Amino acid sequence: MLNGKQTRHLTLPLWKALIKYVDGQKRAEQQLKASEENFRVLAETVPQFVWTAQPDGSHEYTNQRWRDYTGFTPERVQRWDDLQFLHPDDRAMNQALWRHALDTGERFECEGRLRNGQTGVYRWVLTRAMPVRDEAGQIIKWFGTCTDIEDQKRIEEALRQSQERVNALMNSNIIGINVIEGEQIVDANDTFLRMTGYNREDLRAGCINVMHMTAPEDRAQTQQAHQELAVRQALTPYEKEYICQDGSRLPVLVGGVVLQHDPFQALGFVLDNSAHKELEQRKDHFLGMASHELKTPIASLMLQTQLLRKQLAKQDIQNADRALSRMESQLNAVTRLVGELLDLSKIQAGKLEHAQETVNLGDVLQEVIEIMQQTQTTHAIVVHHAEHPPLLIGNKDRLGQVLLNLISNAIKYSPGANTIEVAIETSEESVILSVCDHGIGIPREQREKIFERFYRAVAPYQHAFPGLGMGLYIASEIVKHHRGTITVESEMGKGSTFHVTLPRKSP
Ligand code: ADP
């Protein structure tokens, strides 16, 4: 600026220039003030913490929000170096990065936990700072913000934990896991590959196809399972056999859930079921052996008892005859039980007889009723015969067994009634047999289950009836072998009607 002595000698143009210069200065100062004011308003309004620092990193300004949160007065923040407001574990990293930024003039960026001065609770923030330079490129200050990233950090942590769990599952050597797209297995864990003998190369080359690696007899069920998966989002676990890479077979238990729909992807879970299957086979083998071992001596005992009874009857020794008669009926019960056990093991081994003779179901029914009426006197069996001869192709003895089972169940489970109605009808394609009783009935939710192995209904009075839950299972397997169906209608306390539908022999 000019002093008083100097201004006295100024000419008019110079005066004008001087006044213009002073005005310019004033305007610049006002603009600076206004821009600083603008900055402050902005800094106090944004949701972030805002701060500035001097070129050497020492404190210059923090917004009110920052001070409220940390509880630091402007005086207490004169030096940043103590970093009291940062979590102790984050200080070293923060300091090192800040030092580096100050030394190099590069932008600063660091995540750390900032302490709430009032509650002492830390929240994650992302701190960023940029240097502000003058025209010569010299840093004149640092401008920084801290943004709350607590929620993001929480999500990241939850994701990390869930990823850890997924990894633990994927890396477990207990359960095979695969990702299926259509019929193709597009990803799998090591356990699945180890189980099936395939490797990562096979996976990459797209060589693992669910249908190809499923045993032929299980393919229809697998197809059905995939359809169920698409509709119900999850798969009820089912048993099947894989054909491994080396051609060997592996019994497995598989389940799955839908991952995404477009393109359709499912996550499959596979458990090696071979130990369980082997045990089951051993059990079935044992049942078969035990029944065989029992059957011969029982048959011989039965024969001897009958002979003895006939001899005694001739001598008219009444009491001995009655005792032997009871023995005979007990032996009959044991014979039936052993027969059922034997059938069960045959079914399990897939060795049920497949005789293919022409059978008249009406004749079979007549024979069964004659046998039954020799031993039971409580119920009259009323028969409604078909108009046309109910001819079909199958196994006469096995079909007789189905009838015997249905009629004896009808009698057993209707102790308060005295009739059973049996009807045979024919349609163009089928022979339909119905056995109707007026007994205890079967609860609705158990009407399908009673055809399963060893299943006995849970219902009032049920425990009063002897049985092992094998008869209907065997009957339904026999019906299946004849490509037929067996169903039941029932009303609790009123009775049940079993319907067997079998394909009729074409005329
Ligand atoms: P069991 O009679 O030896 O228990 P089944 O396999 O023949 O075995 O029958 C399975 C179950 O079905 C029986 O335990 C019984 O609960 C039910 N059941 C079968 N037939 C009838 C019937 N006619 N009335 C009521 N319940 C029946």
From TrEMBL:
Coiled-coil zones: 310-337
EC number(s) recorded for this UniProt protein: 2.7.13.3
PROSITE patterns noted in UniProt: HIS_KIN (PS50109), PAC (PS50113), PAS (PS50112)
Ranges for domain PAS: 35-105, 181-234
Swiss-Prot/TrEMBL catalytic activity: ATP + protein L-histidine = ADP + protein N-phospho-L-histidine
Residues of the PAC domain: 108-161
Pfam families from the UniProt entry: HATPase_c, HisKA, PAS_3
Superkingdom, taxonomy of origin: Bacteria
UniProt xrefs under InterPro entries: HATPase_C_sf (IPR036890), HATPase_dom (IPR003594), His_kinase_dom (IPR005467), HisK_dim/P_dom (IPR003661), HisK_dim/P_sf (IPR036097), PAC (IPR001610), PAS (IPR000014), PAS-assoc_C (IPR000700)
Domain Histidine kinase as annotated: residue spans: 289-506
Keyword list, A-Z: Coiled coil, Kinase, Phosphoprotein, Transferase, Two-component regulatory system
Name of the protein: histidine kinase
Biological source species: Ktedonobacter robiniae
